[in-house]
Design goal:
flat; 2 strands
Length: 93
């Protein structure tokens, strides 16, 4: 049997020594009232969330030819944004 070198379990954290909540953590935390979500969390424990955009993108499912996707992916990071730019250019917007 080969040895698994990856550690898959989270390290044990002493429940009697919890992390200290700051005002920033409370501001970013999800807010529930009676089990109903009033405000979703903004970010994670260590990183604040991204600022809200005035014109947020919409997530869609789009089927493209494999060669089109590979050509854009080959251009590197940000390839989805480049597809968006090309679509805007083709539509004249």
């Amino acid at each position: 049997m080969t040895k698994n070198s990856k550690i898959t379990a989270e390290p044990w954290v002493d429940p009697d020594d919890p992390p200290v909540w700051t005002e920033d953590h409370f501001r970013r935390a999800a807010l529930y009232v009676g089990g109903k979500l009033i405000r979703p969390a903004d970010g994670t424990w260590t990183k604040p969330g991204r600022p809200l955009s005035e014109n947020p993108k919409k997530q869609v499912t789009l089927r493209l030819d494999p060669d089109v996707v590979e050509k854009f992916r080959a251009t590197g990071k940000g390839w989805q944004s480049r597809i968006n730019a090309e679509l805007r250019k083709a539509l004249g917007i």
